[in-house]
Design brief:
Elements lengths: L2 H8 L1 H10 L1 H14 L6 E5 L5 H8 L3 E6 L2 H14 L5 E4 L13 E6 L2 H4 L3 H14 E13 H11 L3 H4 L1 H10 L1 E2 L11 E4 L1 H10 L3 E7 L9 H4 L3 H14 L11 E7 L4
Parallel strand pairs: 1-2, 1-4, 2-3, 4-5, 5-7
Antiparallel strand pairs: 5-9, 6-7, 8-9
Helix pairs in contact: 3-13
Length: about 270
């Protein structure tokens, strides 16, 4: 079992609850899905969707959703949630984003890949995942793919672990030089992960065949500063969600985002 698979098998509930805590990210991402996805009952792939927060939301809207993930425990959790909510998932598949060979070419009208690209540490692995994602989309089909921003983790260190550059220089140097962020000693919110510079995301995806439609800061204006906003409810939160949705496409915000959302399409023939 891969370390990333073992990590997500062991943290299923935390992954489900993360988007309850990170409400701004969830709201902004859903707004982009609503903007770029075709209407139901289009065929949607949720690649690396874990316990199914987005898959269940999309299925409840009437989409034909295939949920695929490396974590079998997360998939079982998603199936139980779907059954308990009376929501139908078209398929639930245990597979790696780097190898979608059991899926045919041009099957999906739309895809979200909100986890795989920061869980794959090698460039060749990320290339394989992007090429496979491109292959299973129909010509003209659109995807939204999430990336971790390399700068965001330095800001987070400044907030919660300001001694890290001096106390863990090798870990910080590896992040800056290669993009690989090693998991914190004693555990943390992520396994070993890959973080990208904002300016490198579109060229990478375009090299794998995608046409770039936009790049967005998932946390909008807030970056790592959203704790108090994410605690709000009702109209108070909705007002902030509207602001962040409005400005999430401002390119000056990308370097302060934790998650960067790439939107691209498989070009029409």
């Amino acid at each position: 079992m891969r370390p990333v698979e073992a990590f997500y098998d062991a943290t299923v509930v935390q992954q489900w609850e993360r988007l309850t805590r990170q409400k701004t990210e969830f709201a902004v991402t859903l707004s982009l899905i609503e903007r770029f996805a075709p209407p139901p009952p289009a065929r949607v792939l949720d690649l690396g969707g874990g316990p199914g927060r987005y898959a269940l939301d999309l299925a409840a809207r009437g989409y034909e959703v295939t949920l695929a993930d490396l974590s079998s425990a997360a998939l079982e959790f998603a199936k139980a949630k779907a059954e308990g909510s009376g929501i139908h998932l078209h398929r639930v598949l245990h597979l790696s984003a780097e190898d979608l060979s059991e899926l045919p070419d041009n099957e999906f009208d739309f895809a979200v890949a909100l986890g795989p690209f920061y869980g794959i540490l090698t460039e060749e692995g990320r290339r394989s995942a992007a090429r496979e994602l491109h292959r299973v989309l129909r010509p003209g089909g659109c995807c939204i793919a999430a990336w971790l921003c390399r700068y965001a983790w330095l800001r987070l260190m400044a907030k919660i672990a300001p001694l890290a550059p001096s106390a863990q220089p090798d870990r910080v140097r590896e992040l800056l030089d290669t993009g690989v962020l090693r998991a914190a000693e004693g555990g943390g919110p992520l396994p070993d992960s890959y973080c990208e510079f904002p300016s490198e995301i579109a060229p990478f995806m375009e090299a794998q065949g995608f046409e770039t439609l936009g790049i967005y800061a998932a946390e909008g204006l807030l970056g790592v500063l959203g704790e108090n906003v994410n605690r709000l409810i009702g109209r108070s939160f909705d007002a902030w969600a509207a602001i962040n949705t409005r400005f999430c496409g401002d390119p000056t915000l990308l370097g302060s985002a934790e998650h960067i959302l790439y939107v691209g399409a498989a070009p029409k023939d």
